[in-house]
Design a protein that fits this description.
Blueprint (H helix, E strand, L loop, with lengths): L1 E4 L9 E4 L9 E10 L2 H8 L14 E8 L11 E4 L2 E2 L5 H4 L10 E2 L11 E5 L3 E3 L5 H4 L2 H14 L7 E5 L4 H12 L3 E5 L12 E3 L4 H8 L5 E5 L4 H9 L1 E9 L12 H6 L3 E4 L5 H10 L7 E6 L3 H8 L7 E5 L3
Parallel strand pairs: 10-11, 10-13, 11-12, 13-14, 14-15, 16-17
Antiparallel strand pairs: 1-2, 3-4, 3-8, 3-17, 4-5, 5-9, 6-7
Helix pairs in contact: 4-5, 4-9
Bound molecules: zinc ion.
Zinc ion binds next to helix 2.
Length: 331
C-alpha cells in the first residue's frame, strides 16, 4: 500500500512509499483512509516536531471506511464510515476519567506520538472511532481537528444563546467551523476576515481586521464581544483582546503568527476578562459533532492526491489559499 513518509524532518524529505499494510490488533480496526484534512499540525510534524516512530507517516485528521475489525471490537463492522479521534489516551488517568481524553497525562496526538493517517490503510484502536452519517468526505475529514477544535473552544467558553462571538481567522480551517457552530448555538457572529464568502457559513457580519475594534463597537453599541476566538496569535492579539467586552472570554488554540504577546493586567481585572486556552476536544464532543455534521459545510480551496502531499503542505501557508486544503487518499 502507499503511504506518505519521511525519514528526516523537512518538507523536501517527504516521499510516497510502498509499505506493508498494517495488521490490526485484537482491539483495533483496519481503516481504508478516504480523505484527510491538511492542518498546521501536519506541517509542524513534517518540518520541526520531535515525532515517533521514524520513518514517520504524518496526518492528524482523517476519515475512512472500516475494512477489518479485531476480535474484541464489537461496535464496528466492515463498511462503516468513520472518523478518527486522534488522541492517544490511557482511559485511566484523572483527565480521562473526567472525559478529557485530549489532556490525558499519558497520552499524545496521533501522528506525533504514533504514525498518522496519510496512508491507504491505517490500524487504529476501536475506541478512537466515531461513526458518521452519509456526509461528504471533505466534511467528514474536517471533523476530528478543524471542527472539533472550534466546538471544544466554544463549549469551554460556555457560549450561550444571544452571545456575541467574534471569530478571528474566520475563513481558516477552524474559523469556518467556529462561525457555523456558534450560529447553531444561538450566537450572533462577527467574522473577522477579508473573505466575504464567510457569510454563506452563517456569519451575521464580516469585518476587516484593521477595522475590527471600531466595527465591533458599532455593532454591539459599545458592549463588545462575549466570546472572542483568536487562533492567529501575535499579529492580531492587540485587536482581539481589544474587542472583548465586560466579563467576556478571549480564547485561543493556536499561534499561527507567533506566540508572544504583552498582556495588560488592569485590562483583565477592570473588565473581568477571561483569557483561556483550548486544545483539540473530547471524544464525547466528536460524537456530538458527528451527529450534527449533516448541517456543516466546508469551503475547500483545493483537494490534492496522495502523491501530491508535499504540494498540499506548501499550499497551507500560501497567501492565495481560499478555504481548506484536503488530501484525497482512497476511493
Ligand atoms: Zn488518561
Amino acid at each position: 500500500m502507499k503511504a506518505v513518509q519521511f525519514q528526516e524532518s523537512g518538507l523536501s524529505n517527504l516521499r510516497v512509499v510502498e509499505v506493508e499494510r498494517p495488521r490490526p490488533g485484537s482491539h483495533d480496526v483496519l481503516l481504508q483512509v478516504v480523505e484527510a484534512g491538511v492542518n498546521p499540525i501536519d506541517y509542524y510534524v513534517v518540518s520541526s516536531l520531535n515525532v515517533r516512530p521514524m520513518p514517520h507517516v504524518p496526518g492528524a485528521e482523517f476519515a475512512g471506511v472500516v475494512v477489518e475489525v479485531g476480535d474484541h471490537v464489537s461496535d464496528f463492522k466492515p463498511g462503516d464510515r468513520v472518523v478518527v479521534y486522534n488522541r492517544v489516551f490511557d482511559g485511566s488517568c484523572d483527565m480521562c476519567l473526567s472525559s478529557m481524553e485530549h489532556l490525558c497525562r499519558n497520552g499524545g496526538i496521533m501522528s506525533v506520538v504514533t504514525n498518522g493517517g496519510w496512508a491507504e490503510y491505517v490500524a487504529v484502536p476501536g475506541k478512537n472511532l466515531v461513526k458518521i452519517p452519509g456526509i461528504g468526505w471533505e466534511t467528514a475529514a474536517s471533523l476530528p481537528v478543524s471542527a472539533l477544535t472550534a466546538y471544544h473552544a466554544l463549549m469551554s467558553a460556555g457560549l450561550r444563546p444571544g452571545n456575541v462571538v467574534v471569530v478571528f481567522g474566520a475563513s481558516g480551517n477552524t474559523g469556518q467551523f467556529a462561525v457555523q457552530l456558534a450560529k447553531m448555538m444561538g450566537a450572533e457572529v462577527i467574522a473577522v476576515t477579508g473573505k466575504d464568502w464567510v457569510r454563506e457559513l452563517g456569519a451575521d457580519y464580516v469585518v476587516a481586521v484593521n477595522e475590527a475594534v471600531g466595527e465591533v463597537g458599532k455593532l454591539t453599541g459599545g458592549r463588545m464581544a462575549d466570546v472572542v476566538i483568536d487562533p492567529l496569535g501575535q499579529e492580531t492579539w492587540a485587536t482581539s483582546i481589544g474587542v472583548v467586552g465586560r466579563r467576556g472570554k478571549w480564547i485561543t488554540f493556536g499561534q499561527l503568527t507567533g506566540g508572544e504577546v504583552t498582556l495588560s493586567i488592569p485590562r483583565l481585572y477592570s473588565s473581568e476578562v477571561w483569557v483561556m486556552g483550548s486544545t483539540g476536544g473530547t471524544r464525547k464532543e466528536l460524537n456530538e459533532l458527528a451527529k450534527l455534521s449533516h448541517k456543516l459545510k466546508v469551503r475547500v480551496d483545493k483537494e490534492y492526491g496522495i502523491d501530491d502531499a508535499r504540494s498540499a503542505l506548501d499550499r497551507l501557508f500560501s497567501k492565495q489559499r481560499n478555504g481548506r486544503v484536503m488530501l484525497r487518499i482512497g476511493m
